[in-house]
Design brief:
Strand order of the largest sheet: 3-4-5
Shape: elongated
Distance between the termini: 59 Å
Helix content: 25-40%
Number of strands: 5
Largest sheet: 3 strands, mixed
Strand content: 5-15%
Number of domains: 1
Radius of gyration: 22 Å
Structural class: alpha+beta
CATH superfamily: Ribosomal protein S19/S15
CATH class: Alpha Beta
CATH topology: 30s Ribosomal Protein S19, Chain A
Order of helices and strands: EEHHHHEEE
Length: 126
């Protein structure tokens, strides 16, 4: 990795963390800015309070935008089955929490079964 400090839209992390939520929204892309400006839901406000109190939180709010307050915290995001731990880093600013907790598994195929190929089509099973 390079020795350069992280910058988000030309601002250092210290500068961003000193901003309020609306000032941070002005730096975000249109989708995140609109989400923040329209107001956070009750569950999202509770998540922000939990993260400010401790560096660990659990949530179902997958649509929550990652804010500067969350950097360095571990947030467990529900993926429909389990709570997946997500360690929030600077590069995640402006993204949604749900992007970092996959809801689908990758498919793992085993070897093809008997009769699945042309060569094994007429092999007796016994």
């Amino acid at each position: 990795m390079s020795d350069e400090e992280f910058r988000f839209r030309g601002k250092k992390l210290d500068e961003i963390q000193s901003m309020n939520l609306n000032q941070f929204a002005d730096l975000c892309n249109a989708e995140a800015r609109r989400k923040i400006q329209r107001g956070l839901r009750h569950i999202e406000k509770e998540l922000l309070e939990d993260v400010r109190e401790s560096d660990h939180a659990r949530t179902h709010a997958r649509s929550m935008v990652v804010t500067p307050d969350m950097v360095g915290a571990t947030i467990e995001v529900y993926n429909g089955k389990d709570f997946v731990p997500v360690e929030v880093e600077e590069e995640m600013l402006g993204h949604r929490l749900g992007e970092f907790a996959k809801t689908r598994r990758e498919v793992e195929h085993s070897a093809p079964g008997l009769g699945a190929t042309r060569s094994s089509q007429h092999v007796p099973l016994k």
